[in-house]
Design a protein that fits this description.
Strand content: 15-25%
Number of helices: 10
Number of strands: 11
Order of helices and strands: EHHEHEHEHEEHEHEHEEHEH
Strand order of the largest sheet: 8-7-6-10-9-11
Radius of gyration: 21 Å
Shape: elongated
Helix content: 25-40%
Structural class: alpha/beta
Amino acid sequence: MKSITSSANPLYKELKQLATSAQARRKAGRTLLDGIHLTEAYLQHGGKPVLCVASEAALTHAEAAAVIRQCQATAVQCVVLPDGQYQALSQVEHGVGLLFVIETPRAATPAGLTQSAVLLDNLQDPGNLGSILRSAAAAGIKQIYCSEGSASAWSPKVLRAGMGAHFILDIFEGVDLAALMATTQIPVFATSSYATQSIYQADLSVSLAWLFGHEGQGVAEDLLQLASQQVVIPHRGQMESLNVAAAAAVCFFEQLRQTLAQA
């Protein structure tokens, strides 16, 4: 493995840019998978990184060493950094010191909605976005559509929160949700505290799309009007609403429950 010890090294400078700048990631068309779980999941699902970066400490870690060997066996460039320099790239606390540089996937948006999906309107928080991706993947929903203005789905923070869900989903970014909804072949459900029908009364046993919005403002009014149906998640207590990621999980697994009940 090639060893890099100088912070002035051009490759290290490039890695630092990718680790700290969303603009640099967009310009390069690359992102970072930070940590042993994400790197293992990426390889498990057939991905091939552009670069494998390890700390010196990672070389003595059994799982990390196995990942490095797998990369070397497929001619992936691998480099090792002193622990201090590696930590300047990583946002994982107490990790084993392993990350990948990968090409950011860019899929063409399908012409219309034909299978169960999630539509995200201006969702801002990376943790919420990653959690929604993770819940969707666990519930068997494959397609995710993110509007312009939503958090970048392939940012390191969202990737960490997604826990590998990205690699089994089809994620489309910068989508005109209004145009997509206008051509949908399946119903679109939006949650609203003003709806009269609860998700437990609605028929969710068919293919449908879920529409969720900005953490504070919710779904834009024009999109809300395009939804086939508005439903509410009933809850007790004095809280006005659920966190959007929690609400999404409730909806996804009620849909799954109803689907399994029909099987």
